[in-house]
Amino acid sequence: MMSAAHADPHETSSLSKERVKVGVIGGGAWGTALAIHASARHETVVYARETDVVEAINDPAVRENTTFLKGHKVPEGLRATGSMAEAVEHAEVILMVVPTQFVARTMTDLAKLLKPNQIVVSCTKGISVDSLETVNQILTRVLPEALHSRLAYLSGPSFAAEVAKGIPTAVTIASKEDEVAARVQDLLSTNRFRCYRTTDVQGVELGGALKNVLAIGCGISDGLGFGCNGRAALITRGLSEMTRLAVALGAHPLTMQGLAGMGDLVLTCTGDLSRNRTVGVRLGMGENLKDIIDSMKAVAEGVLTSQSAHQLAKKLGVSAPIMDGIYRVIHEGADARNIVSEVMCRPLTAEVDPSILQAAARPA
Ligand SMILES: NC(=O)C1=CN([C@@H]2O[C@H](COP(=O)(O)OP(=O)(O)OC[C@H]3O[C@@H](n4cnc5c(N)ncnc54)[C@H](O)[C@@H]3O)[C@@H](O)[C@H]2O)C=CC1
Ligand SMILES: O=C(CO)COP(=O)(O)O
């Protein structure tokens, strides 16, 4: 059966139809959804560490990742494997889709198998809690130098379940090498998945990581019953904080207005499919963090990234009272109602921070 991702008999497309091999490392919800998407155009092999995931995807009677993406059949052409070597051999593009805390170890294993002409695209959204590194910093630490110019980052508003269904989605591909971003853009775009591109790797990565913290905050606010005004304020002022911190770390402020910043922030702060938002709603309704995490099979990156963001803002002297408050609710058991009062009663300021005005004058 054709999925919605393929279905458009009247399409008059200027998009390339070139077919290559795509390897996907990580058989969670996002790795599986991206593999379903990629297999509409390319020979695609997904590596999963869980034997039951590999078996369920390959079993003709199942053809589904019943562990991480239940309810979404995978197309005929998609194959799963428990061998990283098999997934990456002859692949022009390798999508790396593992949670942040496992990136360094997974990529150290993968490094031995990679060839300098292969492109590695990180689809992970987080900041390491141990080292405060972005994924780009982790990858340039663990991968051979010959591969550094072949790295790209995919981010933007994209719930796995919606991509798996072929619902129209737009994302951003970042690479320090425009040529690499353009190649990935060309190979991953379809009539249901539109890729934009940028060279602002830092902005794209930080947007994708920091929005998860705010999504937990919005969930807490909704769980407490604070309503639409509070949510809109959190999204807008949260975006200001994300921008201040990202700019202090070298990003361009305009990137934060794009798909990887505002786009993903709006999606995860308002969409009920968000795991991060769900963690927040449950916290706001009075559940304890450990019970919430223990009940989830899926990763909610914002829990650990709230800690990394808190440390980074402190280290750089960046004002981030909302993210700081979210960190205190998640990790220090602070009462969210008291945090709201504290944040509302801070000294009054201008809406736009001068550091952002200055950075906005730089070429994008
Ligand atoms: N699910 C979504 O809608 C989206 C997720 N992302 C990001 O993609 C990344 C991966 O998330 P999902 O695929 O959703 O994960 P998931 O929550 O569905 O699954 C957990 C993943 O962690 C892996 N894992 C668990 N223990 C591991 C270990 N010891 N070593 C290596 N891997 C281990 C599992 O194999 C599985 O792939 C995250 O950074 C997430 O923020 C980005 C966009 C959309
Ligand atoms: O990043 C995502 C969508 O763009 C997924 O968000 P959650 O991890 O909160 O579900």
UniProtKB/TrEMBL annotation:
* Highest taxon listed in the record's lineage: Eukaryota
- The EC number on file is 1.1.1.8
- What Pfam families does the record point to? NAD_Gly3P_dh_C (PF07479), NAD_Gly3P_dh_N (PF01210)
Glycerol-3-phosphate dehydrogenase NAD-dependent C-terminal domain boundaries = 200-340
Boundaries of every Glycerol-3-phosphate dehydrogenase NAD-dependent N-terminal domain copy: 21-180
- InterPro entries with a match to the protein in the record: 6-PGluconate_DH-like_C_sf, 6PGD_dom2, G3P_DH_NAD-dep, G3P_DH_NAD-dep_C, G3P_DH_NAD-dep_N, NAD(P)-bd_dom_sf
What are the entry keywords?
NAD, Oxidoreductase
Catalytic reactions on record: sn-glycerol 3-phosphate + NAD(+) = dihydroxyacetone phosphate + NADH + H(+)
State the SUPFAM superfamilies in the record.
Answer: 6-phosphogluconate dehydrogenase C-terminal domain-like (SSF48179), NAD(P)-binding Rossmann-fold domains (SSF51735)
Protein family: Belongs to the NAD-dependent glycerol-3-phosphate dehydrogenase family.
* PANTHER family assigned: GLYCEROL-3-PHOSPHATE DEHYDROGENASE (PTHR11728), GLYCEROL-3-PHOSPHATE DEHYDROGENASE [NAD(+)] 2, CHLOROPLASTIC (PTHR11728:SF1)
| Protein name as catalogued | Glycerol-3-phosphate dehydrogenase [NAD(+)]
- What organism is listed for this UniProt entry? Coccomyxa viridis
Q: Which gene encodes it?
A: g4946
